[in-house]
Amino acid sequence: MGFEMRVYGWIAMTILVIFLYPCLCLDKTNRRSCNIYEGSWVYDESYPLYDSLKCPHIRGEFNCLKYGRVDKQYLKYRWQPSNCNLPRFDGKSFLKKFKGKQIMFIGDSLSLNQWQSLICLLHSAVPQATIIQQGGNHPIKNYTFQDYGVSIILFHSNFLVDIEVKKIGRVLKLDSIKHGNLWKNMDVLVFNTWLWWYRKQLSDYIQIGNKIVKDMDRTKAYKIGLTTWANWVNTEVDTNRTKVLFQGISPMHYNGTQWQKPGVTNCAKETTPINRPSSSLRLPPASYVLQSMLQKVKKPIQLFNITALSELRKDGHPSFHNIFHGIDCTHWCVGGVPVPDTWNELLYASIKN
């Protein structure tokens, strides 16, 4: 009898844990399931999460306050998921949780954008901590918080697949990933690519197998490149050891019709978010391409789906508040601006369990 009661007790406890497990991750506000990527931006006086002027690690492209941005309202918005509360980022908890771990961002300058935001978030939590900086040149930058043994690494790769310089010029090889051995043994991998696929500045030719062409439809090329990446994950990455995320498409704001201002051609005078729920937005076509291609990955990965929530932040870009004083509505201000910082709050919520 006593043995049976103990068995029933363990069964009851197991069922309880199963039902409560989602609540251990996020504070649900009702009984509906929580999608942390669906919600809206709310004004919050307790933001920003840190003072950018005290972070020595921001590049001039993203340092909006240093380069003259005077409106501060854009610093005060917090992402609020529809059916749960997103935990506020805690840098010390992050460093303790990932003690001895390596987190690598792999992608273009938007990966650099998020990487710099995470460095500043952690630096603000432990400003006296020793940070060992390695690299500095392409393609790798590594900041290690020595007291915790946590490495935050950036691997710059515009396409994820390879570009090689040959006699004929720069060749984008859609079926080749030679740097994978440097990536696959990380504890967390956050991939990103799209920004350069529709541009032609970085490659003179495109190669698939032995076939080299001058150019091809860039969406088709993107699909082939993502398929190569998916095959690489399937064959090379031990997802029991390494958590893999792929960042959604980061939106740009050069077209005022996105926020009911036809004729506006940039984000220069925008100081507030688009006042709509993220679920009401149409996503860029590349987002649907990405989501369909990620289904080719047989191993467990996560879509780090920041597209819709970032689409609302027309006010979050550097505009001309950057070291070059050129209009930039592609990247995001670093230094309290909720877009890259919120990306890292969402990243932490996604990977800590």
TrEMBL record:
Lineage: Eukaryota, Viridiplantae, Streptophyta, Embryophyta, Tracheophyta
UniProt-recorded name of the protein: Uncharacterized protein
